[in-house]
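Appendix B. Raw example, untouched.
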Amino acid sequence: MDNSAAVPARTAGSVGAAADRAAMTTHGRDPEPDRTSLPERRSADAPPASAWQRVVCVVLGMCVEHVAALRSRLAACLALRCCDGSLRETRRWARAHRVPWDPLEGGLRALGARCDCEALEVVERE
């Protein structure tokens, strides 16, 4: 006895067939979600990042917490002594936090920072 007549066949274009494919391969999720749609990681008491802060994070390749730590370090160092025209304190901070220097330096230069005081201006901007 043939039971194929009892179960309606699903065509490739039917809604049920698309749902079956999604359930079998990705469990209903996009297999390659767009990075911009991923939720941002932030602590519960941190205020939402401004648009500029998000740009800084992307260009520098760092999370919001690292940018905040860099901002604090530069503000403290520059409060004690004048800027010497280099990214010396930024480099020291990057080494201590194991942040790759070349992408960080390139990002800061792309945002117009050539020294520590200019780097501080970039990361402080709202």
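End of appendix B.
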